[in-house]
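Question: I have long wanted to understand how a fold can be written as tokens. Here is the record:
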Amino acid sequence: MKRYCLTLDLKDNPQLISEYEAYHQNVWAEIQKSITDSGIISMQIYRLHTRMMMIMETEDSFSFEKKGQMDASNPKVQEWENLMWKYQQALPFAKEGEKWMLMDKIFEI
């Protein structure tokens, strides 16, 4: 099993943050299926003000490239991603089109 941590910001708007969290209390079934179909075993998202952190535990065979290809060919995932972009904003140093960014592990005990 592999573990990944990713980060992304939300727009600094309490109403939008509330809406974003409401969507994540009832994630569409098609989105949940796309997550598990890609080899993600567990996914959690944490938030502090506008900063979010996602923790993913995956099968050993998981790859971001394969997940990206699957997402690009899934209209429901594209609909979800476009909707979520209303609430999300790229990190200041992100490249054009980059959303969730992979974090480097710097400590473990």
Remarks:
- The chain has one domain: 2-102.
- The mean pLDDT is 97.
